[in-house]
Specification:
Layout (H helix, E strand, L loop, with lengths): L1 E5 L2 H12 L6 H17 L16 E2 L19 E5 L4 H7 L3 H16 L3 E3 L3 E3 L11 H8 L3 E3 L3 H5 L3 E9 L3 H9 L5 E7 L4
Parallel strand pairs: 1-2, 1-8, 3-4, 3-7, 7-8
Antiparallel strand pairs: 5-6
Helix pairs in contact: 2-4
């Protein structure tokens, strides 16, 4: 899992403004940061899938900057990349008036396509049951809260087709949501998040 930023200070303020207060003008800079994490996740060696709901995705920091021209990760991939946003509940989307994770994934994809990456966004995950707000829950409680909560839409896995699948989320605290999303897709092992929360 690659995280572009740390969820603190100005990053936290900008993300909350975009997510909760409809500051859609923040989508471009936040999407650019997310694109960095997606670029690294898409070019990283393919790790074994993690089908177990108790297995967390490995975490690393994304090195943001221009694409490498000396043999390092580069967005001009022959293998297509599909970004799958971790879904918000319908109630949350209705209350905010937009789907922040999906929107940021689309913004990141637009930027990466301009760099030459073959990338698309497919929102094939959906909630199959309600969950409580994760804020204030322990790591164990978060895992139990989201276990079995997501599913792929009918024919969703078939739509993913060949290529690299990268899960996308805005903030990671314990990794419970990403791990559940990976399970729902049959064990996707690559993920990119905008910000990693380090204070639990």
């Amino acid at each position: 899992m690659y995280g572009a930023l740390t969820y603190t200070g100005g990053v936290r303020a900008a993300l909350l403004a975009h997510k909760e207060r409809g500051a859609l003008g923040m989508a471009a800079p936040l999407g650019a940061a997310l694109a960095c994490a997606v670029r690294m996740a898409a070019n990283a060696p393919q790790a074994p899938a993690h089908p177990s709901p108790h297995t967390r995705l490995p975490t690393a920091s994304a090195r943001c900057g221009p694409p490498s021209r000396d043999g390092g990760p580069h967005p001009r991939r022959r293998v297509p990349v599909t970004l799958v946003p971790v879904p918000s509940s319908r109630r949350a989307v209705a209350g905010r008036g937009h789907d922040p994770v999906r929107g940021l994934a689309q913004e990141a994809a637009r930027m990466l396509r301009r760099e030459g990456m073959a990338v698309r966004v497919l929102p094939v995950l959906r909630q199959r049951r309600s969950v409580v707000d994760q804020s204030g829950l322990t790591a164990t409680q978060r895992t139990a809260n989201v276990a079995g909560a997501l599913e792929a839409a009918p024919a969703g896995r078939r739509l993913l087709g060949a290529g690299r699948v990268v899960l996308v989320d805005d903030v990671m605290t314990t990794g419970a949501s990403l791990t559940e999303a990976a399970r729902a897709l049959g064990g996707v092992a690559s993920a990119a998040v905008l910000a990693v929360r380090t204070d639990g």
